[in-house]
Amino acid sequence: MKYVICVPDGCADLPVPDLDGRTPMDVAHMPVLAALAGRGTVGRAAVIPEGMAPGSDVGNMSIMGFDPARFHTGRAPIEVAAMGRTLRPDQTAFRCNLVVVRDGVMVDYAGGNPSSGEGAAVVAALEAELSGMHEGVEFLAGVGFRNAMIAPAGWIDAVCTPPHDLSGEAIVNPGGPAGGVLSELMEASKDVLSGFDLEANQIWLWGQGFQPQVPSFADTHGVEAGLVTAVDLVRGIGVLSGMKVCDIPGATGWFDTDYEGKRDIALAELEAGLDLFVIHVEATDEAGHAGNVAEKVRALENWDSRILAGLIPALDSMGPWRLLMLPDHATPSRGWSPSRWFPATSSSPDCSQAEVPDPSPRRWLQRLAVIG
Fold first, then answer.
1. Residue 221 in this model has a pLDDT that exceeds 60
2. H helical segments located in the chain
3. How confident is the model at residue 241, as a pLDDT?
4. Which among 92, 108, 287, 344 is least buried, having the fewest CB atoms inside 10 angstroms?
């Protein structure tokens, strides 16, 4: 039996006025998915535990069968694992976005979407010019605008607002005991960014945490698994749990990602012997954060025509298979982030109401076997 989990990140949505009160999923032309629904089971799944913020870190950890209440410590330490770093007990990690802030307003949480090469050049300059301001500070390059900073463990005691929660609004600088030193670095980064011909004009620090101890995917679920994604957050869960993390050149974490390449690496790895493969695409999430309804619809249609259309016949040729397709959370196209529409203290939206899969071996996979 082969298993595939498809995660169109943040694709769940609320009714959108621009779509006459429909959601992007209502509008998107997805004939392959419709046919799958006709031969499978359609339901709802709660991947965000009560009391936790509805983000990709929590949602994807749940989808992979690891209880976030036990294993989630923060977004940044998961991403740092994907960058090949193991945090010591005396270290914490922060996400370090490249952002655009003008006149005290968060204009663009993605910093104009620089390439990974452009982002790496900025991070190298940050490391050269800012790491010496405080002992134990180190900057790490990630993907595009998504980078990281390692800092002393005591810096974890800060209240940081995700930049996408502030889109189009007045910024809220970090608070708490470590808020001052974080704000100092963010302010100092402006001089560093001024030396680059980019839209991004400073860094934004958030998502801090200690390195989590995630158990082996194979030992937990009884199968050998792999994944493909462009974002370090999902890659990090794979690294920490011992999954095979596959990289392809065209994975960008943006609207222009290589859908076919993700489909093809999944099929190749399943054919080569893996039991389960996770295909993750970030485009729907980024479109939601940007309030770009048309791009979110287009990303969903790309899933159908560029992944599912070729994936299903190839799976049929391999023998028995099961496929699960679900979002990790909702990213409303009407603005703000999931945590603003669905705060951690409230229940999840209708798109994610059901029992979390039992993480025991095999049984977990059988309960995910909803299409095939």
1. yes
2. 24-27, 31-39, 56-63, 68-71, 75-82, 116-130, 179-193, 217-221, 232-241, 259-272, 283-290, 293-302, 309-318, 338-341, 363-368
3. 97
4. 344
* pLDDT recorded at residue 363: 35
Please provide the average confidence, as pLDDT, over all residues in the chain: 90
User: Could you say which architecture CATH assigns to the domain 2-72+213-368?
Assistant: 3-Layer(aba) Sandwich (3.40)
CB of 171 closer than 8 Å to CB of 62: no
Tell me the C-alpha distance between 247 and 230, whole Å. Answer: 8
pLDDT digits (tens, 9 = 90+) for 68-108: 999 999 999 999 999 999 999 999 999 999 999 999 999 99
Total length of the chain: 372
Looking at residue 120, its amino acid is: A
Model confidence over 297-310: pLDDT tens digits? 999 999 999 999 99
**How many CA within 13 A on the CB side of residue 251?**
23
Retrieve residue 317's tokens. 């040729």
Q: Are 327 and 9 in contact (CB under 8 A)?
A: yes
Instruction: With H, G, I as helix, E, B as strand and everything else as coil, classify residue 128.
Output: helix
Q: How many CA atoms lie within 13 A of 16 on its CB side?
A: 23
Rounded CA-CA distance 144/165 in Å is: 19
What pLDDT, on a 0 to 100 scale, did the predictor assign at position 339?
Answer: 55
Q: What is the side-by-side order of every strand in the sheet holding 276-281?
A: 244-246, 225-228, 276-281, 2-8, 321-325
Residue 94's H or E segment, with its range, is strand 91-102
Element (H, E) at 203: strand 202-209
C-alpha Rg value of the chain to the nearest Å:
20
Residue 253 tokens read as: 């974490």
pTM: 0.81
Structure tokens belonging to residue 371: 């299409």
Q: Is the CB of residue 3 less than 8 Å from the CB of residue 321?
A: yes
| Of 314, 310, 146, nearest in space to 234 by CA | 146
